[in-house]
Amino acid sequence: MPSNIKAGVSLMVAIVGAVAFWLERGAGRDDVAWVAGALAAFMILAMWIFPEARRKD
What we know:
Layout: H1 3-26, H2 30-49
Helix pairs in contact: 1-2
């Protein structure tokens, strides 16, 4: 996947993760908020670190 697409997807995941974190903290669920934030961070990190699966002919 090209880097500019990865950057766009990373930005979207970061925004959604931040909103989920903010909403859960507002609802008083600090544990769920931290899980949502950690999951968003892991998804962004994994997208940049792990290579894409490619088909071998």
